[in-house]
Design a protein that fits this description.
By secondary structure, this protein is an alpha+beta fold. It has helices at 107-124, 128-150, 188-198, 230-234; strands spanning 8-9, 18-19, 23-24, 31-32, 53-54, 60-63, 72-73, 162-168, 177-183, 212-216, 245-252.
Length: 269
């Protein structure tokens, strides 16, 4: 099929692209494609001269530089980008097809860029505490499989109600920790009593003046409330316990609210 004789080839020697709607340079009158429409891009040999028109009455007027427009203005209306004179009808870049008009980004591309910036800013604002909680949850899932193989507990408990912990024992006990499982419906007080029996720990929680055996949080060191259930602690919105995670048992004075340093009990991996 013969090539259609439509449009013009870009007169930039290195381009020669056929453009159906070529741009005509106002200075050298050459035809160019979109990429080479500006004077700088096609190395225009002509020096731009601002056109002024003197009327017979001695009044200076400024003719519009837009192609085929015969409009004139008494005061200069200059495009700040291409620095040419235009009439009021063609003063905007879109109206006179300004050679230095920046093409807007497609809407989808701009939206995608904005969303990416929002995501990156939110990711950067996450606290170290939340990252630590995420790491703890992942580690607990890995440890849960091992705990199920070796943990001690009431074998009569249904599997769906079992919650597994690596229980770190008081400092003066020979064994540093033991794997155990408990009923998720139990209170912390019952968990403490049952863990003490499994580990053969002295439990004087019913003696008023004695130190109390308390279950403590593995990250914060806080002594957990005796009447809280494991279910409520597993679902805590900020500092939850994890099925397959760690807990700490320690003897505390009645006015102590927790441990000073959990690193004395739980090794860092």
């Amino acid at each position: 099929m013969a090539e259609l004789d439509v449009g013009q080839h870009c007169q930039r020697a290195s381009c020669n692209q056929n453009d159906f709607l070529p741009f005509v340079c106002d200075f050298c009158s050459g035809a160019f494609c979109l990429e080479h429409r500006s004077r700088e891009s096609h190395a225009c040999p002509e020096v731009p001269v601002k056109r002024e028109f003197q009327t017979s009455g001695g009044t200076t007027s400024y003719p519009c530089s837009f192609q085929d427009c015969k409009g004139k203005e008494l005061l200069p209306v200059i495009c700040p980008q291409c620095e040419k004179h235009f009439c009021l009808a063609h003063r905007h870049q879109d109206d006179h097809k300004c050679e230095k008009l920046e093409l807007p980004k497609p809407r989808m591309a701009a939206t995608k860029e904005l969303v990416q910036k929002i995501v990156e800013s939110k990711a950067g604002s996450k606290s170290k505490g939340r990252r630590g909680a995420k790491n703890s949850a992942t580690a607990a899932k890995v440890a849960l499989m091992k705990l199920k193989l070796h943990a001690a507990g009431d074998k009569g408990l249904p599997q769906a109600e079992r919650t597994y912990f690596q229980v770190y024992l008081p400092k003066d006990v020979k064994d540093s920790s033991q794997p155990m499982f408990f009923c998720s419906k139990w209170s912390v007080g019952k968990v403490v009593d049952y863990a003490a029996s499994l580990a053969n720990l002295k439990n004087n929680n019913n003696v008023l003046a004695a130190k109390k055996l308390r279950l403590c949080h593995p990250q914060t060191g806080e002594a957990l409330q005796m009447d809280d259930t494991l279910l409520s602690l597993l679902a805590h919105p900020e500092t939850p316990l994890y099925n397959g995670g760690n807990v700490i048992l320690e003897y505390l004075d009645n006015d102590d609210r927790g441990l000073e340093d959990v690193l004395d009990y739980v090794p860092q991996t």
